[in-house]
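Deliverable D4.2, example record:
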Amino acid sequence: MNYLLTKNNTTVDLNAIPVISYDDFSTDVSLLVQDENRHCVTYYGWKHLEVLKFICAIADDATAAIYLFSYELNVHEKHHLASLTHHIFAFHIFEREIHENFGIYFTDHPWLKPVRYAYDRADQNNTIANYPFFKITGNEIHEVGVGPIHAGVIEPGHFRFMCNGENVLHLEIQLGFQHKGTENLFLTKSKMSQRHLLAESIAGDTVVGHAYTFARNMEQLYGIKENLKLELIRSIALELERIAVHVGNLSALCTDVAYQLGSAVFGALRTPIINYFQWWCGNRFSRTLIRTGYNPYPLTPALCDRLVGVLDDFEKKYIEMSEEMFHLPSVLARLERSGIITQEQMHLVGAVGVPARATGIKRDIRTSHPFAYYKHVKYEPVTQIAGDTLSHAVIRDHEIKKSITLIRTFLSLLDTMPISEPQQKINYQTLALKPNQFSIALTESWRGEICHTAVTNAAGELEHYKIKDPSMHNWLALALAVRNNEISDFPICNKTFDLSYCGHDL
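Output generated by the structure prediction step:
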């Protein structure tokens, strides 16, 4: 076989992944992803000894299998490779990143534009100041530029609209203003305390999602056995984070459609959820809650009782406000049929998370590649079919309600579990990472599919760490969604996607 089959949250011998020619890789991957149940979760390269080594992971959502492919190129040669994007457009972002990092030219790629302007990019002359914007010419065409500096608290990103009157013909989204070097810092910072802080800083609104994914990779590489009760508690944290961000998103969406009551009430309802994290671990954004191999903040009976009270109070108020919002004609009129994107387009760009499910794509790692305690409960993803901003809002509404039910289920199981979670702090200096390993972890965060992979060398040190935030897939989908809308609809479309700048600029 030209690939190695594995599963989510597993570690395999790096040398067990077959190294094949690029031609075989391109042919096999192209055939494999013709099935819409399969999509690329990560594809990247790094310098390994005297070669550039590439790994591609294809997830099969129907069978929970992950196909691992690998090929190598001479690090000292210039390479021109046939583009996969020419056949499977979802590969566009991965090939653009590889081109930017290593100077590999993918023939037939529609546009090898830079992704991040990394400090160690192959072509240092390729600067953000000379970004190759798409151009539309005509007497009635004008451009509107927004950012990179914004009036709010969001991070830098530039949006360039090409319009005919108020109608958006094309949107170009330029990112890469604050490359943080996060992936490289995982290698240069050798202490686990430093790496935990890095994982929590990948995206400040997804602390649990990224910290959990990192912890699972490290636990796999350290050989720490999965603990069922610990995974149950982590699942509670993931669902609490989902509730907090979704209700905050609905508040912001109400602001953008000038519905002040919804903005105020949903905004206020976010507070008790994030305050619960403060009671639990001392930080409203759940920093320090997730640590590799143990639970630094046990979910005590008193905390469980408090969480039940928080959810009971939240649910009553939330349902009342959500009923008002989703039956108010003025709100529905602004959300219905705005920012429409089709299922075909979402398959093409490889979309994940709420945006994908808003077009009927049942892509949810909790179901397709279950992890944590989701392996022991049946979860049915919430989907819509219209693909408009209302569909996004409805999904968030339903997911909030399902998260409340899930947390109550998880809490009811805590006391029945005979094995308690490990609570004693681990001395990581007494542990060693397995040498020559490849580890992969997928998590369904509130934003969608997170993928972290780690590679160790022969000495048992981290050789490469790769992070894929869901935004990597979905920024292009946002650009497509705003086409043929009035430019005044962009804030609504932008908020419904709710993508991450920092999660992209790694």
